[in-house]
Amino acid sequence: MVDTNRITGAAKELGGKIQGAVGDLTGSNRNSVEGRAREVQGTAENLYGQAKDAVRDAADHAVDAARDVGDRVRNAVDDVDGREVRDRARQARDAAGETYERAERSVRHAGREAYDYAEDAYENGGRYLRQGGREVTHQVAEHPIAALLVAGLLGYGLGLLIHGRD
After folding, report:
1. At residue 2, what are phi and psi to the nearest 5 degrees?
2. Domain boundaries in the chain?
3. Statement: residue 157 has pLDDT above 80
C-alpha cells in the first residue's frame, strides 16, 4: 500500500517543476522561485511517505516472522508425546509467545517513533523551505541586479563543472 504522502508529494513536485519552468520561460522570478520551492517540498513529502512505507513494511515483516516462529513452536508442541515433555514444550511455547508479544510491541513502538521523527523532520523542512523561499524572493525583489549576477555566476560555474575547461 502506497502512502498518500508519496502521491501528493509527487504531484507537488511535478506542479513545482511546471511552475518553475513557466516562470523561467516568462521571466517571472516569483513563479520560478515558488515553483522550485514547491518542487523541493513535493520531493520532501514523497521521501517522507517512502520512509513511512519502509517503517510499516519492516514492522509487518517482523510481526510475520514472529508469528511464523510461534506457529512452528506450537506445531512442535503438538507433535511431542509424553506428559512431562508436553508440559515443558508448552512452557517453551508460552515463553516464545511472550517474547513474540514483547518484540511486536517493541517494533510497533520503534515504528511509531520513527514515524514521529519523520513527521517532525518533514514539517520542519517544509517550514524552513517556505522561510527560505520567502527570503530569496525578498532578496531578489530588493536586489534584482545582484540576484541576476549571482544567477549568472552560478550558471557559468555549473557550465564549467559540467563541460570542463576545454
Report:
1. -85, 135
2. 4-163
3. yes
Here the cell at position 62 is 517482523
Residue with cell 520503534: 110
Share of the chain above pLDDT 70, in %: 93
Q: Secondary structure of the chain in the HEC alphabet?
A: CCCHHHHHHHHHHHHHHHHHHHHHHHCCHHHHHHHHHHHHHHHHHHHHHHHHHHHHHHHHHHHHHHHHHHHHHHHHHHHCCCHHHHHHHHHHHHHHHHHHHHHHHHHHHHHHHHHHHHHHHHHHHHHHHHHHHHHHHHHHHHCHHHHHHHHHHHHHHHHHHHHCCC
Q: How far is Cα 64 from Cα 87, in angstroms, rounded to an integer?
A: 26
User: Does residue 85 have a pLDDT over 80?
Assistant: no
Half-sphere exposure for 93 (CA within 13 Å, toward CB):
18
d(CA 94, CA 86): 12
Least confident of 10-19, 73-82, 121-130, 145-154: 73-82
Q: What would you report as the CA-atom Rg of the chain, rounded to the nearest whole angstrom?
A: 27
Regarding predicted confidence, which is higher, 83 or 79?
A: 83
Give the per-residue pLDDT at 82.
62
